[in-house]
Amino acid sequence: MTITRRTALLGGALAAALAAPVAAQSFPERPITYVIPFNPGGESDVTARFQQPFMEAILGQSVVIQSRPGAGGATAWAQLNSLEADGHTIMNTIVPHTILQPAMKDVGYQTDQIENVYFFHYTPDAILVPADSPFETLADLIAFATDNPGALTMGGSGTNTANHLASVIFGDLTGATVTYVPFSGSAPAMTAVLGGQIGGAMSYTTQAVKAGDQVRALAVATEDRVPALPDVPTFRELGIDHVGGAYRGVAVPAGTPDAVKQQLSDVIGQVNADPDFQRMMTEAGYQVVDIPLADIPAFIEERRAAYATAIARMGGS
Amino acid sequence: MIEAFLGALTPFNLTLALAGVVVGTVIGALPGLSATMAVAVLVPFTFTMDPASGLIALGAVYTGAIYGGAYAAILVNTPGTPAAIATSLDGFPMAKRGDGDLAVTISCFASAFGGIVGALALLFVAPPLATIALKFGPVEYFWLAIFGLSLIAVLSKGNTLKGLIGGFFGLLLSTIGSAVVGGDVRYTFGEPALLGGIHIIPALIGLYCVPVLLGMVADRAPHIERAKTGGGTRIPEALRTLWRSKLNLIRSSVVGTIVGILPAAGGAVAGLVAYSEARRTSPDRARFGKGAPDGVVASESANSATVGGGFVPTLVLGIPGTPPDAIILGALMVQGIRVGPQLFAEQGDLVQTFTFGLLIATLLMIPTGLIIGRTAFRTISSIPKSTLAPVIGVLIMIGAYAVEQNPNHVTMMVVLGALAWAAARWGFEPSPIVLGLILGPIAEQGFVQAWLIGTASGDLWGQYFGRPISLGIIFFTILTLTWPWWSDRRARQKALRERAET
Fold first, then answer.
1. What average pLDDT does this structure show over B107-118?
2. Largest Cα–Cα distance in chain A?
3. B456 and A153: CB-CB below 8 Å?
4. How far is the C-alpha of B132 from the C-alpha of B259, rounded, in Å?
5. What span, in angstroms and rounded, lies between the C-alpha atoms of B63 and A306?
6. Residue A1 pLDDT
7. Among all residues of chain A, which has the CA nearest to that of B134?
């Protein structure tokens, strides 16, 4: 068993060395396991599968996607640092989740215990209403929610989550008071929007792209307009200073050698620079960003500060 | 449409459909391995295929797995997938008395019928049907869950009080972890492993399979009776049974299709609702739970119909109807297919080819199902328990772990299993507990969401009691709860009259 396995690995490594000159170094010497803390079919899974062939081409090794869902990602993140720290196991992470969750309750990990190597895209926050909604613009919605505090229901995925946080930030910035209705995920929240059960949703651009004409996106939280939704204004255009969403990155278990971390960061950056990869991401409504290893500490601090007021309002520490 | 049909008939697609059904059936049949898992494992293989073939392969695996769940439910009394819970209620008693072969054959034909009804609905009326998913708001899900919970009365086999206690225990279990609405952390006792709550699959395996396993070891008698008739497939008998319960078959298939369309409900709810309706309307209600073929017919046709039904919102609205659909949806996105209304407009051929593929896979399920079913029956009824028990023991460990690659789930499964085994000695059935566990979150979230929406709109009362679909579900709930009492009274009066006349 061990012999055959070792032989197979040796064969794999040999083939990889022939296939890609990059693999001349000791890492990677066998397939990479890419752990996704969410169910297959979700945004984290889909974007990892977008990356997969590009990463395999650069690394010369196969990348195996494994999903380990539970507790909004917390189950996997709490296990991250107990995994083998040699670079062959990497895990998908999300900000604000990894900042928000430890601030709200004991989830078995701390924000700073997660060693991110790269944040490669974000799904920008977007406010969506049903196609037949009376709100034609974000101004209509804000006016209604200011005059009738709490009468407008806005769905989102869960309590103390990224959508919840975004709706609190939205309220802080605009003075609008909406009733946030938590659902068990983005899909049930969207169902309720499409059926007109709720007034709208605090969701992501990707959901707006997926739902097509059935919904109207009133604003997106990007710096420039999203190519897949060219008619939708940004919050900034409307005078609301909100840019953000769910930033997805890749982390490694603590103790992974610095050289390997840097190499992984470079690989993901290289994938991000590929026009084919960018096209796939943009068409589906994802916003590619480049936050490499060196910029991670500053990025986390910047995000922490951006969320601080809202997190305090939600009762977190 | 003809072109799409021919597109599905290419040798490659036919091979995929056949292979998918076989693989799915085998995975579904193993206790602990579910349809969701079967689909998740096979998704990566479809990325190299063209979208229609990939979809056909996944659809075939999904159909097969839902059907395969019936074998374990009937022959071992361990529902292989949540969808097969209701199948075990009458399937296992049938196997116990030596009619396992008949039950397997009936379940095969009933599944195929349900699958065809679901696929035809997808083919012809998908866009209008998808609006059903949208009509169901939080409050409708709340009432649906309450309706589901009323089945405790059906499932508790004689002792309603114990059934209720079990049901409430299940509801309590369902609150463990961090709450979707409110975000509170409940009953985790400071243990991060419990934050995610009790996962339904390990719980199901623990509650159903562990007591069966322990019982197998403790009891000297054979697990199920060998066939009375030499272990054939008993096809004519099965077809006669189905013909007799044709109304049940059609009703259950329709129920399955509709429940499949509802995101968040799924095969388990479909099977249970159809089962309860079959039992309520049957003239022979007392036989249910003791090996009535009608129970198997209802459950199996309904859960197979959810496959086609579930694809309706998945393809029309981009909202997954069932958990495996969520995975298939992700696979489609990776392939660059945009689901939603534009899919039907722009790639109608793809949808039709896939639907025909699904129909073909469902038809292929009949011969493969009969062959695999006969083999499974012969194997399980003839191999000694000393072999069967350890094999199942290993399988359920793998099943509990593999669902999310989480070792904590194995612990959960074992603890709940030990608990269920102890509870069974005091006359507590696992089904009410499972029902509480499955329906608890649906009821809780629906209730709180409806409360928030009702408060925001200023019409709380109207939110709960002023919507037509809700009222319909409330009516059926009351009907289900009071029906036994009504029909008993009618029977008594009739008996009295007859006595008076003579």
1. 95
2. 73
3. yes
4. 10
5. 47
6. 38
7. A195
